[in-house]
Write a structure and sequence with these properties.
heterodimer, A: alpha/beta, Protocatechuate 4,5-dioxygenase, Chain B, 60s Ribosomal Protein L30, Chain: A, 2 domains, six-stranded mixed β-sheet, 13 helices, about 20% strand, B: alpha/beta, two-stranded parallel sheet, 9 helices, about 35% helix, globular
């Protein structure tokens, strides 16, 4: 089934007061009522998936997605433990979580699923799910907020999710668990004395809510950095939830917005806002930041090849074929699949003739060192040494399958798509590997290879 | 009643990787080892304090983050499963720890009298943060001494490193006073890393030490500078340079534990003992002891 969509979006507050102590303050009570109204909207729309992006679940290793089908525990807030405990037992769509994780990887993101008994689901998610899904009928998915992520990473995270909603035909509700201004009183206050921490915070909150009430979500999204500077305590690198929410709503500026409530919780600006995809008629964006579809930022800290490998998944070239079988043919699962009807190698007498071997990896089809261009043909930086090493490793695996080995290589014809750029790096790796074996060699410059690789080798070896 | 004393103070970082790599029976995941330099550092620290008697351990952990004042665990026992929200694949630890509520309350009361916002945490469902548990385990895996656990007030995020230091110096001062008045012998632990820029990827085998290194040379230089100050008894310079260090090394000193520790020790002028230094997912970590028991006359 296809054609799923985000049928509603909500911004909701994170603090436990709306669950545990709404009666203590009229503002908290108003927020609770708005929460209940939001739950009713979700119910009336017959949503079948709740997607929560929580700002109170920070992560470091990319983004994390809850995939425990039924997480249960008791949540106690680190600050407001005196208000009591929230027992939770949630209905998580584990399958959607796993698929979202895959979609993230396909877009170059680091992410992983989390399915451990006792995992501490964060206060924002617990509050949001407890109040928006009180009977637990609608399956949910929860994603963390990476502390180092900026706009591009957060935007791509949302787009990966949006595509999956579409592909799986879901009627999904997107929810950001967040505060507006997040400066709380740093001393304990009586509930009755609660108010927005400062006039400045209040004015900014009202400006943001004016935009959101007009459905101008993308404008708010593009103000995120300014909002972070003006009214956010610098707990994390940036104010991200509006990037996520706008991207999952196609970066639109003409949604139909409705501010259900705006109040203070211990000084922080808290609102329940509903954004419906029906066009409001606005639409002219006041700001203009670039769209981003694939994350290619700082993720290769451990190993420079990692980033390029992940990027390569977005452009691995033409359709793959199963290797053909004929007399003397040699094929192996340990070599990359052909891009046409031919075997990995063919044995004739005491000789083995290999089809052209590139650096693609047998299991993932990724390209160590990265592809030379993206799917749109835009040139990418790549590592010729990593590619050349991968070619030699693939050759070795095919020869082993044939009962031969790398030290029996007799003759090699190498093809480079950019002789000027790559010959030196290729030659260095050659010297470290096949150069020590001693085959004859011819190196040719060619215009292109079928996959986005920079080097390929044609090999003849003995048995 | 005899006067209490702080017998030692330690910088005792809490990356859960250390517990994971030790394979204690309380932790669910199993490792092939890893981060030995730091684990051996903890061994040396434990050995160093083997003959030193004390009644309680006071920990300030950056992972019990509170924005409304400073909080203290206020019940005598906490038992539960602690799952690290960032590294759940490494740390799922079944803990059972006793709290010295009396001492906690004494520190709380003194802090309150000094004008700090404080609160006792008495909700029995509360889960103790993994920073406290990791430091508690690595420092004394027997778990046979009661702890006082102090939250990390995030005043640095709200104001500045300077404000954070003012508050933590005051909290350290009253912590010391309370300990002296309690008649107890106490070890104080600051549970924090030094430079704190993480990798945002994890190797397939988390304990693959061929992937472990400091995130950047600048972080290394800062860590070494701070360690040199500790080793040479120049702790006032650490306090003085804390704003630059915290900002430029993205240091976990932002949580206040290190400043608090130095304050409880009256900003030592004698050399600290460096038991180990190593990186964990790119962050810099030092295990350091101020052997107060050897410097009573100082």
């Amino acid at each position: 089934m296809a054609g799923g969509e985000i049928i509603e979006s909500f911004i909701v507050p994170v603090h436990p007061h709306t669950v545990l102590a709404p009666q203590q303050n009229q503002g908290w009570q108003n927020l609770r009522k708005a929460y209940d109204d939001a739950a009713q909207i979700i119910k009336d729309k017959e949503a079948d998936l709740l997607i929560i992006y929580s700002t109170t679940w920070p992560s470091i290793i990319g983004h994390q997605i809850i995939s425990d089908p039924n997480p249960e525990w008791v949540m106690v807030d680190h600050d407001f433990h005196d208000l009591g405990s929230i027992h939770y037992s949630f209905n998580i769509d584990a399958e959607f979580a796993k698929q979202w994780n895959k979609e993230n990887h396909a877009r170059g993101l680091q992410s992983r699923c989390v399915n451990y008994h006792g995992f501490p689901i964060d206060v924002g998610s617990v509050v949001a799910l407890t109040l928006l899904n009180p009977d637990n009928k609608i399956p949910a998915v929860i994603v963390s907020s990476n502390v180092y992520a900026d706009r591009s990473e957060t935007t791509v995270l949302a787009k990966a999710c949006k595509d999956l909603v579409h592909k799986t035909g879901r009627k999904a509700v997107a929810i950001t668990a967040m505060s507006l201004s997040n400066r709380m009183f740093t001393e304990h206050i009586d509930a009755k004395d609660d108010r927005i921490h400062s006039l400045k915070d209040d004015e900014w909150n009202r400006k943001i809510l004016e935009f959101l009430g007009q459905g101008r979500l993308e404008d708010v999204s593009q103000l995120s950095r300014t909002i972070q500077q003006q009214i956010r305590v610098q707990k994390v690198v940036n104010f991200k939830p509006m990037w996520w929410l706008s991207a999952i709503n196609d970066n639109r500026n003409d949604l139909t917005g409705n501010v259900l409530s705006y109040e203070a919780i211990n000084g922080a600006g808290c609102a329940v806002v509903n954004l419906n995809p029906t066009s409001s008629g606005f639409g002219d964006k006041e700001y203009d930041e670039d769209e981003v579809e694939v994350f290619a930022g700082e993720r290769g800290v451990l190993d420079a090849a990692t980033k390029n490998t992940e990027t390569s998944k977005t452009n691995s070239g033409p359709k793959l074929w199963e290797p053909t079988e004929a007399k003397g043919s040699v094929n192996t699962e340990s070599a990359p699949k052909p891009v046409g009807a031919y075997p990995h190698a063919r044995r004739v007498g005491d000789l083995i003739y290999l089809s052209g071997v590139g650096p693609r990896q047998p299991d993932t089809n990724t390209i160590p060192g990265g592809p030379i261009q993206d799917a749109e043909g835009n040139k990418l930086d790549y590592d010729i040494k990593a590619q050349t090493r991968a070619v030699v490793e693939n050759i070795a695996r095919i020869l082993e399958e044939a009962g031969s080995s790398i030290d029996k290589v007799l003759d090699v014809t190498s093809f480079l798509v950019d002789m000027d750029r790559d010959f030196q790096g290729y030659n260095e790796v050659w010297a470290e590997t096949l150069g020590k074996v001693g085959p004859t060699r011819t190196t040719l410059a060619i215009r292109a290879l079928p996959t986005p690789i920079a080097v390929e080798m044609k090999v003849i070896a003995g048995i | 009643m005899a006067q209490g004393e702080i017998v030692a103070g330690c910088l005792a970082p809490h990356p859960p990787h250390l517990v994971y790599a030790e394979n204690p029976e309380q932790n669910e995941p199993v490792a092939e080892g890893g981060w030995e330099q730091l684990r051996w550092g903890y061994e040396r620290l434990r050995e160093s304090l083997k003959g030193v008697e004390y009644d309680a351990i006071v920990i300030l952990s950056p992972h019990w983050q509170t924005y409304v004042g400073t909080h203290f665990l206020g019940l005598e026992n906490f038992q539960s499963l602690s799952v690290d929200p960032v590294f759940p694949n490494l740390f799922r630890y079944h803990y059972d720890m006793n709290v010295d509520v009396e001492l906690a309350k004494q520190i709380h009361d003194k802090a309150e009298s000094a004008g700090l916002a404080v609160r006792m945490m008495t909700n029995p469902d509360f889960r103790v943060d993994y920073g406290t548990i990791t430091t508690g385990h690595m420092f004394r895996p027997q778990w046979d001494k009661p702890l006082v656990v102090i939250s990390s007030n995030r005043s640095r995020a709200y104001y500045s490193v300077e404000v954070m230091q003012e508050m933590m110096i005051e909290l350290g001062r009253v912590t010391r006073e309370a300990i002296l008045e309690s008649g107890k012998k106490v070890v104080v632990l600051a549970s924090n890393s030094l430079s704190h820029r993480h990798f945002t990827t994890e190797s397939e085998i988390p304990e693959d030490m061929s992937k472990e290194h400091i995130t950047s040379h600048a972080m290394h230089l800062w860590d070494m500078r701070i360690i040199d100050y500790m080793k040479s008894g120049q702790c006032q310079r650490i306090i003085d340079e804390m704003p630059e260090f915290t900002e430029q090394a993205i240091a976990e000193t932002d949580g206040g534990a290190f400043t608090w520790l130095l304050s409880t020790l009256e900003v030592p002028k004698y050399p600290a003992i460096l038991h180990g230094y190593g990186t964990i997912i790119g962050t810099g970590n030092a295990i350091v002891e101020w052997p107060v028991y050897r410097h009573k006359a100082v």
